[in-house]
Structures are given as structure tokens and as C-alpha cells.
Amino acid sequence: MQSSSPPRKSMLKDIAIELASDDSDLVYYSWMLKYPSALKSFHHIITRAHKKKIVIFLDYDGTLSPIVDDPERAFMSIDMHSAVKDVAKYFPTAIISGRSRDKVFELVGLTELFYAGSHGMDIIFPAKDTISVNRLNYIRSTDKQGKEVNLFQPAREFIPMINEVFRTLVEVTKDIPGAFVENHKFCTSVHYRNVDEKSWRMIAQRVHDVLKDYPRLTLTHGRKVLEVRPLIDWDKGKAVEFLLESLGLSNANDVLPIYIGDDRTDEDAFKVLREGNRGYGILVSSVPKESKAFLSLRDTSEVKEFLKSLVRWKEQMSNVDG
Ligand SMILES: [Mg+2]
């Protein structure tokens, strides 16, 4: 029998080595010391959530749906769909995606959620849930079911410009096999996932050249995608703040926002939460990377487990209370 326990640091290292089947796993497990698993930290999260209202923000691609070659076919699993539906029963839940709001709604198909499309530049929520209605750019409207809604579209004036640049991008990439240009209404993106690697530079150059004529648009780089966006002071982080405020949930003492995302654009939201010391940013990644998130999940199936854990916890709580 050993009487003394090894020092904590070396023990963690030993565990990491034990768990690692090869070097890349070892690197991942040591990265997780900095960004612990949200599943393993679950107890910690719910302890902090005591007497607070949890609000859930979810990115779509790569977070709820796996990244696939054809963005038109990025569907959630049936299991994930029910996990999101269940989570929305207990917590205000918003989807914040780079896709157009219509497209992301079509893919998710749950009316009980809030949606922010085009990296947060196109937000819709039921009028009845809105606290502050005096914002510039608010538009009263009705949704497809005829319910009264509020729209918030800070880049509305850019729609004609985006349409124009979309058509030009389609034109300049049409001879590149596998290139796919998508119009998200307030932004547009050029996917090169299916383009031969030899043409990646060429496609980037052409997009870049088109953008020279549009000083009010900016180009960002996502996962095998070039994204053209209006140059405005608005991002997923601003969208999170805006949604919290509009829904009357901006009091940091009563509210615990949780944001789950996998993309570079999600970093703006992680940053807002980190700097405001509010809630948790959770990065979805199977490879180590620098992030402003606090926690991590490895892939979409871990996201699903995490959402299910939240639901189970809430159900247990209401059983205890009731
Ligand atoms: Mg994503």
C-alpha cells in the first residue's frame, strides 16, 4: 500500500498520459486543463446557476449539426432536435448563426426559440417577450404563423449591396468546380470545402478582388468559407447583449448565460461573457485552439449530452420543488 499521494500536477499529467492513445490526444487532454469539459464541470455550472435564470445561446453549424460537405444538408440528428426542444421548455433559448434567419429556422424548425441570423444582424423574437421596444431599427412585423414579432436588423441598408456582391461572386466563381456562394441576406459566403486545394488561393484572390470595390464590406475567414459582411459594429457578442437586454435578462446577478459555439465568429460572444464575468462560453472543438471560452465540448454529440444534462437537472429540481 502506498501511503503518500503524488502531487496534483504530476497526477494530472499521469491521467493525461493514461487517457491518451497517441500524441494528439495527449495535446488535447493538456489543452483541456485550460478549457475543461463542460460535461465534467456540470456540477460547478449548476452550483453557480443557483437561483439564477439560465439563458442558452447556440450556434448552429458545427455545434448542433455536424459540418458536412453540402451546407444545404447540415441537418441536426433527431436526438439533437429533441434535446434542443427540451432545453427550450425550461430555459430561454436562442440560435445565433451565420446563416440567414430563414434558413436556420428551416433547419431547426422550432417556433419556441429565438433566432438571430446573419451573425446576429437579423434577430426575431415574439413581441410579447420584448421589454425595451424603443430601439432604433426595431421593426414590428408578423411571422409566418401570423404572430406579432419584433425584428432587429442593424444592417438593413446593406441588403441591396449584399445582393449585388452575391451575384458578382457567383459570376467570378462559376468556373471553379465545387465553389458555392450562399446569400444570407445581410452577408454572403463563399464555401470552398469542395474545391480542389490547388484552387484555394485563386478563389480567395477573386473574392478579395471583388471586395476592393466595396469598402463598406469586410471579409472574414471561417471553416473553409470566406464570409463577406457589412462593416458595422455588430457581431454575435452584440447580438447576445441585445437579446439579453430586449428580453429583460441583462441583470448579471440574476441571469447565467451559456453560449455554445465552434466558430471564430463565436469568439465575439465568448469575449462578451468573459469580460462581463457573466456565465459560460463553451467552445466546441476536437482540436486544441486558443479561445475566449471558459469551457469546452469535443463535438456535437457532447453538446447534445450537455443539453440533456441541463434538462435532467431541471426536471429533478422541479420534482424536488413540487
Ligand atoms: Mg459554427
Can you characterise this structure?
The chain has helices at about 10-20, 25-35, 40-50, 80-90, 100-110, 160-175, 200-210, 235-245, 265-275, 300-320, and strands spanning about 55-60, 95, 115, 120-125, 140, 150, 180-185, 190, 215-220, 225-230, 255-260, 280-285, 295. Helix 1 (about 10-20) crosses helix 2 (about 25-35), helix 6 (about 160-175) runs antiparallel to helix 7 and helix 8 packs across helix 9 (about 265-275). The strands form 2 sheets. Strands 5-6-4-3-2-1-11-12-13 form a 9-stranded mixed β-sheet, with helices on both faces. A 4-stranded antiparallel β-sheet has the order 7-8-10-9, with helices on one face. It has 10 helices and 13 strands. It binds magnesium ion (MG).
Beta-strand content: 15-25%
CATH topology-level fold name of the largest domain: Rossmann fold
Q: Span from first to last CA?
A: 48 Å
Question: Strands across the major sheet, in which order?
Answer: 5-6-4-3-2-1-11-12-13
Q: Kindly provide the name of the CATH class of the largest domain.
A: Alpha Beta
